[in-house]
């Protein structure tokens, strides 16, 4: 007896895209993860921000008060200057007096000389205080100045619209000179005279209503004055009018003086 051939299997139908079985339970959509937002640096640490603002406000206040104080000081200085109208004193070399000036045959210099300087206070409301200082005397020569010695100055006070004097006593002994320099000094002393320069370094301050202010160092450089013979052997004195001295403050020339 012949067998029947097996029946062919039915082909499985493919589900279309997006097909959903109506009997299947509903599927919840997956939750999306929220990424952290990027905050600006000013909002990341609110506590530190407040601390930094506090420091900045303190610095601004300090700077403001410093500017106000500087402005007030400037205004006070300007008003004081307009009221007192301070002016520098003037210096003039009045005289030179050589009590001893000898040049030996061995070209050795022995000298004792004094210089008198007149100073004038042109201020009407300010007194000037002169501290201790030093005077320096040199003789001019074409090969270089010849040292005549230094002298100490004592301090003094100069009232308003008044004049005072300072005397420099200087001397040198046993200074060896070059032959040509010694001969020129002999000829000059016996003839037209030796040109002597005087420089004074002293501290000056002001006195207002009995109170002394701080002193500043100044230098007065006087123009050369000729030293001539006055009849006394071995000695001599200056002749002619007073010569003006240039005042220097902190190595700068002061031109606004009387």
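^ Assign residues to that structure.
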């Amino acid at each position: 007896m012949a067998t029947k051939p097996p029946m062919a299997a039915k082909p499985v139908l493919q589900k279309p895209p997006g097909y959903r079985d109506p009997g299947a339970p509903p599927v919840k959509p997956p939750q999306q993860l929220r990424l952290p937002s990027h905050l600006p640096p000013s909002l990341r640490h609110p506590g530190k921000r407040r601390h930094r603002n506090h420091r900045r406000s303190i610095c601004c206040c300090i700077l403001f008060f410093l500017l106000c104080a500087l402005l007030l000081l400037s205004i006070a200085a300007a008003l004081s200057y307009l009221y007192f109208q301070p002016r520098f004193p003037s210096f003039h070399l009045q005289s030179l007096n050589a009590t001893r000036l000898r040049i030996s045959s061995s070209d050795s210099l022995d000298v004792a000389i004094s210089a008198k300087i007149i100073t004038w206070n042109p201020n009407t409301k300010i007194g000037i205080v002169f501290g201790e200082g030093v005077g320096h005397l040199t003789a001019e020569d074409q090969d270089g100045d010849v040292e005549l010695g230094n002298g100490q100055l004592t301090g003094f006070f100069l009232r308003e619209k008044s004049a005072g004097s300072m005397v420099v006593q200087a001397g040198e002994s046993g200074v060896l000179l070059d032959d040509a320099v010694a001969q020129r000094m002999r000829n000059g002393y016996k003839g037209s005279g030796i040109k002597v320069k005087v420089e004074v370094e002293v501290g000056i301050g002001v006195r207002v209503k009995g109170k002394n202010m701080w002193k500043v160092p100044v230098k007065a450089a006087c123009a050369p004055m000729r030293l001539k013979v006055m009849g006394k052997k071995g000695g001599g004195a200056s002749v002619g009018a007073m010569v003006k001295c240039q005042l220097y403050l902190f190595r700068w020339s002061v031109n606004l003086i009387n």
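The mean pLDDT is 80.
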